[in-house]
Amino acid sequence: MNFKRPRGTADILPEDQPYWAHVYATANKVATQFGYRRIDTPTFEYTNLFQRGVGDETDIVQKEMYSFEDHGGDNITLRPEGTASVCRAYIENGLDNEPQPVRMFYMAPMFRYERPQAGRVRQHHQFGCEAIGDPNPQVDAEVIELGWKYISDLGIKNVTLRLNSLGDPEGRFDYISDLDKYFTEHANELPKLDRDRLKRAPLRVLDSKAIETRALAEAAPKSVDYIGGETKEHWDILLSLLDNLKSVYQDFDYNIDHRLVRGLDYYNRTVFEYEPVDAGGQGTLLAGGRYDPLIGIIGGQETPAIGFGSGIERMILEIKKQEVLVGTPAGPDVVIVALGGAGAAAANLATSLRAANVATVLAPSRSMKAQMRYANKQNASNVVILGDREVESGVASVKSLSQGGEQTEVALDANAIAAHVRSVGDR
RNA sequence: GUGGGCGUAGUGUAGAGGUUAACACGCUAGGUUGUGGCCCUGGAGGCGAGGGUUCAAUUCCCUCCGCUCACCCCA
């Protein structure tokens, strides 16, 4: 019987780690530049947090959660997204007593029971940012800028920003009812799939992939025409702030997309999405929006907030597609090739070299040729050759693989070898 | 949940109803004294599982399992 990894999960092998390191490092750097601080929340939560926070009617809650009852009878769910947990932590730890807004970011695995396909798996990882406690559109612009800088610092090009305002819950009622009316009038022009959708979630008809529907959606009532007062002002200010960004980031631009809606219940006002211009099915790299209602929904004081989530696997797919160079990890500074009875001396030398902070690996005890090949495959900078001769004379041969094979006699002493290796340098 | 495609060494591929299933990369052992890469030679390792058709199935058929792509939905 062979064991296999569960469906929709992945082993991230050593050869792939440079991509992950690049993404983690960039995310960490950019978030820090914007004053966001890292938060880690548990991998699982009580199920009702997501039922309430994400929304009972959403697909995520309806059919995608990894839920189970633990031994004490509590209902537990592996987190399907990050925002609800961060907000729970904000309330639970009294972060509303810190200066507002509280800026936080996370990098963590998410779990959803779905059929895997390109860009979609059951365990995926997200980098997310949340700015909690400030209603000002300046924060909306900040989060959008952060997302832009993250993507461009990763080295990804040709990404577009789609933007929309969903308005506020009160005003949205009129909008949805007009939208419903509009699509119902054209119901006979809609494919069956979208007629069903119309009954379930009229907003979602807008972002249908069916070409017939798309044409209708273009002419449908627009959410931004239904916002007024403070909400409209918020939107207008946001747009002017985004226009300002263009002068700093030459490639930055945004497209107002009236068809952009959200699957989770907690969003209001600003929603946005970054996606490659040539994106296929599951192309969204980063998506977010304002979720002013959420903290109230899960039991906190009404607190405005905005944030985004970004799929790391999708980002890496795009990095590979665009052939972004992510660098390769260096090999060890030293591989020790031991011959004859020098095994014990080699092991001692390895320990001393590591104590001197020289990255050192012992070659497997095989023939010299095999050990040399091994050192080469490890991408070692240097080989220290240690046989009975060297142990007796107290002088080791140090060969610099990276410097074309130049060989030097060095006293058989960790500090001397360390000094030599450093002076030779690598590549 | 629905629909399409595909399952041959670790990876990528070739193959044919009939002897020992091929090639490349990778792994491993060597190429006369204790020196890597390039080159050369050898070795290990495989037809997803079960059933059916047939004298004979890895090849044809069915079922299952797995992978993959798309829809739904989403990062």
Structure summarized in a few sentences:
It is built from 16 helices and 16 strands. With 427 residues, the protein is α+β, with helices and mostly antiparallel strands.
What does this protein look like?
- There is one protein chain.
- This protein is α+β, with helices and mostly antiparallel strands.
- It has two domains: 250 residues, BirA Bifunctional Protein, domain 2 (2-Layer Sandwich), CATH 3.30.930.10; 88 residues, Anticodon-binding domain (Rossmann fold).
- Helices cover 40% and strands 21% of the residues.
- It contains 16 helices and 16 strands.
- Helix 13 links the parallel strand 12 and strand 13.
- It binds one RNA strand of 75 nucleotides through helix 3, strand 6, strand 11, helix 12 and helix 14.
Observed structural traits:
16 strands, 16 helices, five-stranded mixed beta sheet, single chain, alpha+beta, Rossmann fold, RNA-binding
List the helices and strands and how they pair.
Elements: H1 17-33, E1 37-38, E2 44-46, H2 47-53, H3 59-63, E3 66-69, E4 75-78, H4 83-92, E5 102-111, E6 123-132, H5 137-154, E7 159-165, H6 169-185, H7 192-200, H8 202-205, H9 211-218, H10 229-248, E8 255-256, E9 268-276, E10 286-290, H11 294-297, E11 305-311, H12 312-321, E12 334-338, H13 343-355, E13 360-362, H14 368-377, E14 382-386, H15 388-393, E15 395-400, E16 406-411, H16 414-424
Parallel strand pairs: 1-5, 7-8, 12-13, 12-14
Antiparallel strand pairs: 2-4, 3-4, 5-6, 6-11, 7-9, 9-10, 10-11, 14-15, 15-16
The chain binds one RNA strand of 75 nucleotides through helix 3, strand 6, strand 11, helix 12 and helix 14.
